[in-house]
Amino acid sequence: MAADEFGDIAGGHSLLGDAVQHGCRRGRTAGELEQALAIYRDLGIRPGQANALLVLGAVRREMSDYHRAAGELEQALAIYRDLPDRGAEITALNEIGTLHRLSGEPAEADACHQQAL
Hints:
single chain, mainly alpha, 0% strand, flat, Serine Threonine Protein Phosphatase 5, Tetratricopeptide repeat
C-alpha cells in the first residue's frame, strides 16, 4: 500500500472519529482517533498527528479524563508550534485553557487564553 493510501486511511479514521463524537459515543471515538494517530505517526505526518491529538484531547475532556486530555492537547500544541501553524496553535491554547478552567485552575486558564490572543 502506498503512503498516500495510508494517509487516506488515517484521514478516514479521523473523519469517522469526528462523526462518532457527534453521535455521543466518545469511547469509540477515542479508539478511532487513536488508530488514526498511530497511522499518522507511522507515516510521519505531523499535521495529522497534531489534529488527531487535538480532537482526542477534546474527546477525553468531554469524558472528564482531564489528565490524559492535558497530555494530548500539550502534544498537539507542541507540534503546531513546530510546524508552525498559528491558527491551530490558537485552537489548542483555547482547548487547554478550557481544560484548566474545568479543572478549577482559573489562573492557568487565563494564561492560556491570553497566549491565544
